[in-house]
Amino acid sequence: MLVRPALLRPLPHRGDLIAAGAVPFTLAIVLLNIRMDATWGRGIHLVITALACGLVLGMGLLAEREEEHPRAYQTVLLLAGLTLLAIALVRWAQVLGSGHPLSSSGALTWMTLVFAAVVAVPAWGRIDSPVCALVELLAGGLFLLAFVDWVFAPDGPTTLRWLLVLLIAVYVAGHLYWRERKRRHAVHFVNAAGVAAIVLAVSFLAALLGGGLFILEGTYRPPRTLDPGTWWELVLLAAGVGLVAYAAVDREPGPGYLGFVVLVLFAVLAGLPGSDGASIVGWPLLLLLAGGAALAAGLRPSRPLPPAPDAARDPAPTQPLPPRRDDDATRPLPPEA
Questions:
Q1: Neighbours of 121 (CB within 10 A)
Q2: What is the Cβ-side half-sphere exposure of residue 311, based on CA atoms within 13 angstroms?
Q3: Are 92 and 110 contacting, i.e. CB atoms less than 8 angstroms apart?
Q4: Which of 79, 104, 138, 142 is most open to solvent, judged by the fewest CB atoms within 10 Å of its CB?
């Protein structure tokens, strides 16, 4: 017997309670996938996760939108359901024969494509969820990276880094297009650009992160020749400054946080000494001059503003208006009974 959609539609006054129950329910399914991975078969995990995804995500899709954007409980249901959807896709790929789907470009390509297609429904359809739009943008970017890696198999990470720069440009263009149409969606285009910039910076820190196990033992030393190059450092600097400036102008905190992370990663990469030793020539000196000039311009002694062109004129004469009076004589008499 099929479940009628009306039974899965949360009542608005019970939405918060349903969302509060969906969070531990989703966590339980995630824990089952982790703890019972070697005990239960992949098909069992797929069936359990898919049924749980249909329940939670179905409630999020069927909930009525009462305001311009979904209420908090509906967003929680959607995100919890999408989490289960991602796990179900991984299990599906394993059932099809992919042992490690997340490390296979081919499997990752079709999984991210299916995931992005499903997320597009609540992101741009009747629900119009800005958070789901951000998830779709990130999934679409991951699809592009996986597709290029699967089809062209580039030698080295340079091609994928250029794709990240392309994604940043596309996200910025998307923000400009949707800025006046869907304000909240447009902000998440900027957030997606910030995430792409962080991934770009982390790709250069792979050598540093790879030696993380030796840091606790005190035997690890950062490579002295890890130099991304001036161009890539300039991209990260421009992305970080642009995110912080956008957050300040439009008063959006999300891009500001992401911009701070990008600037920290830029400082780590640009701060490592090059192969010819440490020197203040380069970014340190350039940033000192630029920052010092801006500080000097802001703290320069102020002078009184010149008087307005019409400051010497006398104020325009004013004349009080007579008090308003009601003339009862001009009013029509009411009809006689």
A1: 16
A2: 5
A3: no
A4: 104
How many Cβ atoms sit within 10 Å of the Cβ of residue 4? 8
The torsion angle over the Cα atoms of residues 248, 202, 113 and 118, rounded to 10 degrees, is -40
pTM: 0.81
> Could you give the C-alpha distances from 160 to 110, 196, 294, 320, in angstroms and in order?
18, 11, 36, 74
- Element (H or E) spanning 95, and its range? helix 72-95
Instruction: Give the Å distances, CA to CA, from 29 to 33, 81, 91, 200.
Output: 6, 11, 13, 32
**174's tokens:** 């998307």
Please tell me the distance from the alpha carbon of residue 249 to that of residue 187, in angstroms, as a whole number: 12
Find how far residue 144's CA is from the centre of its chain: 17
| pLDDT (tens digit per residue) in 280-334 | 777 788 888 888 888 888 888 877 777 777 666 777 778 787 776 655 555 565 5
End-to-end CA distance of the chain: 72
The closest of 251, 233, 231, 143 to 190, measured between CA atoms, is 251
